[in-house]
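Shapes recur. One chain:

:::
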Amino acid sequence: AQLVESGGGMVQPGGSLTLSCAASGFTFRAYHMSWFRQVPGQGPERVSSIHKGGAITRYADSVKDRFSISRDNVQNILYLQINNLAPEDTDLYYCARQTSDWAMYPPDYDLWGRGTQVIVTS
């Protein structure tokens, strides 16, 4: 099983990016999925989650007006669209596979990608 992120890069403030997470080696549609971001020296922040069926989503308060999570259960890809990027969004973004039920808190994860770097700078 593997998760591979892509789509990161260097963008100016106010710009947009769409991150992708390609899943392989497991039944993608059977798992809830999440995006995290990691700032060096700090713990990971779960920014968004999506139910395995794709109809239910969750967002951290800090991003809910600018981030949009979605998934394609045919192509086995998870997406994160980020709008109106700000310098504080500079982070390593990575996806993870959730093993726990949707309602369980905190959720459990057993598979992580290596991440894609987003740099927001003018």
Observations:
- The longest strand covers residues 17-24.
- Residues 9 and 53 are 29 Å apart (CA to CA).
- The two ends are 38 Å apart (CA to CA).
- The mean pLDDT is 95.
